[in-house]
Amino acid sequence: MNEAQRHRSLLDHLNSHTFITTNDYMKMLDISLSTARRDITKLAEEGKLKKIRNGAEVINHDIPLVITHVPSSFIPEEKDIECYAAKQRIAKVAADMCEEHDSIIVSGSNTTFLMGEHLLHRDVQVVTNFMPLAYQLISQDHQSIIILGGQYLPERQITISPDEEAADDHKSRFVFFTGTGVTAAGIHTSDLLVYMAEKKLLEYGDRIVALIDSSKVGKYGGKLLACTSKLDTLITDEGADQSTLESLRQQGVNVVVV
């Protein structure tokens, strides 16, 4: 791959994931550290990206980056959710995994939010840091909800606690979560605040279940949130990169395509 092709690949990644670490860029294109640094530096000098410590992030000339995470309303609507039909199917399959009397941890995303309607009025305890999901369940008189405490981040609609033991008392059968990329290495996220909030949650479930639509399968998405050895199940939809799915299966991950 020549320099122009590498630059295009890097800029395409930033357009969809907002940032990338130098190490992830090296892995994505199988290039050396010096080449990765040179590419980032050159594109930064050309004003095509912003060079940050140990990586690069997108330059948005139209709107501040911080509001790109904000939905148009507190409760996600269909128009806010990309790949809505696929995510709805994924959410239903995830909810159907739960049995009566289960306790589950559900992290914050549009896909995990869609699980709510399938969990309503069932005897399933939902532990979450995602306020729209909590509100949906409370407003529909769901009987067993635990909201994890901490500082509320309105742009992400989650709570995050500096206390490393904030969820230590919660032991659940499943943790349902999502990410911005899936590779043979595991589930990645491009949002550092989400990474901080959810990394600890993944330790409190017997089975870790990722809900990822096909557009993210086979793509690097920043920091590695959950390595493949920790992942029990990946639920995705048709159209997902088959080589990535096969690699995950070979490593023992239960891959469900809906």
From TrEMBL:
UniProt keyword list: DNA-binding, Transcription, Transcription regulation
InterPro entries the UniProt entry points to: Carb_Metab_HTH_regulators (IPR050313), DeoR-like_C (IPR014036), DeoR_HTH (IPR001034), NagB/RpiA_transferase-like (IPR037171), Tscrpt_reg_HTH_DeoR_CS (IPR018356), WH-like_DNA-bd_sf (IPR036388), WH_DNA-bd_sf (IPR036390)
This protein's name: HTH-type transcriptional regulator UlaR
Xref: Gene3D superfamilies: Winged helix-like DNA-binding domain superfamily/Winged helix DNA-binding domain
Gene name of the record: ulaR
MF term (GO), any: DNA-binding transcription factor activity
UniProt cross-references to Pfam families, sorted A to Z: DeoRC, HTH_DeoR
Domain HTH deoR-type: 3-58
PROSITE patterns per record: HTH_DEOR_1 (PS00894), HTH_DEOR_2 (PS51000)
